[in-house]
Amino acid sequence: MSFFQDTLSIFKKRDLLFLESYKESEDVYTFLFEKEKDLTWKAGQHGLFNITHKKIKKPIRPFTVASAPTENGVRLTMRIGDNPSDFKKAMLELKQGMKVRISGPVGSFYLKDSGPSLLIAGGIGITPFRSILKQIEAEGNRGDKKIHLLYMDSKKSYIYKDELDGIANNTSISVTYLDSRNGLHQKIDKFTSLYKNDGKYFIAGPKSMVDDISAYLQNNNISKRNIKKDAFFGY
Ligand SMILES: Cc1cc2nc3c(=O)[nH]c(=O)nc-3n(C[C@H](O)[C@H](O)[C@H](O)COP(=O)(O)OP(=O)(O)OC[C@H]3O[C@@H](n4cnc5c(N)ncnc54)[C@H](O)[C@@H]3O)c2cc1C
Predict the structure, then answer these.
(1) CB of 62 shorter than 6 A to ligand 1
(2) CB 227 within 8 A of CB 214
């Protein structure tokens, strides 16, 4: 998708019909919406979601579309803590038949079919990788292209774990679960020493974590042009 097409798609708005929501873990919820036939996106992209069923301040937030375009439904997964924002309260109040408005999907956080890729997720930053890996699984293996997911969560609360383990079983993709920065750095070092700047590096999660890992990669001589970042502010 060109930058021009990407910019244009932000002006495309449509209403999505809410189907259901459920808890993934202590403070993580998934929301499912109907996917109309002509709605598509690149696995890893995000949309701007607008609350329309009630009036709130700041009714718009960006969220990754955590489902693959080949799946039925538009899936959002978000962290909702003890003291939710008005936006998240409104999400929890959604009932079947209500709608939220989406602009997009947009963004350049998706895999291009080239070279080995290291995907690094911090906590809720797993959402774009669920979409990306589901899409690869649906399309069949990417041949001998190496894809390795490092999923770091200090509380070991790995959402989508069963699905990710299933994908690792059905494809050549490998998934490693980590709960410490040291462990994460060791796995990154292993990949960078093998593939250096022939590899592509994708990082998603809270902004501070994404910035730290990006700096770590660059200190290990990985060029900025080989690093893609999806930085979630607000955490
Ligand atoms: C591309 C992208 C994809 C995302 N995907 C997901 C996802 O899949 N799941 C998920 O849970 N979250 C995702 N997020 C984060 C999400 O958009 C919200 O920011 C987050 O959920 C916090 O929202 P809130 O309503 O809880 O808090 P907010 O009410 O938004 O506030 C939380 C904190 O963030 C600060 N803040 C708010 N807006 C900004 C801003 N524009 N710049 C800097 N600081 C700001 C506030 O001052 C406050 O301290 C994504 C963000 C981006 C940019």
Answers:
(1) yes
(2) yes
Using CA atoms, how far apart are residues 120 and 196, in angstroms rounded to an integer?
16
Question: Residue ranges per domain, the chain?
Answer: 2-106, 117-232
SS (H, E, C) the chain: CCHHHHHHHCCCEEEEEEEEEEEEECCEEEEEECCCCCCCCCCCCEEEEEECCCCCCCCEEEEECCCCCCCCCEEEEEECCCCCCHHHHHHHCCCCCCEEEEEEEECCCCCCCCCCEEEEEEHHHHHHHHHHHHHHHHHCCCCCCCEEEEEECCCCCCCCHHHHHHHHHHCCCEEEEECCHHHHHHHHHHHHHHHHHHCEEEEEEEHHHHHHHHHHHHHCCCCHHHEEEEEECCC
What is the CA(214)–ligand 1 centre distance, in A? 20
Using a cut of 0.85, tell me whether the model's pTM lies above it. Answer: yes
**pLDDT tier at 112 (50, 70, 90 boundaries)?**
confident
* pLDDT (average), residues 136-162: 89
Q: Which numeric CATH code is attached to 117-232?
A: 3.40.50.80
Residue nearest to atom 12 of ligand 1 (CA): 78
- The predicted model gives 61-73 an average pLDDT of 97
Token code pair at residue 7: 């910019």
CATH superfamily of domain region 2-106:
Translation factors (2.40.30.10)
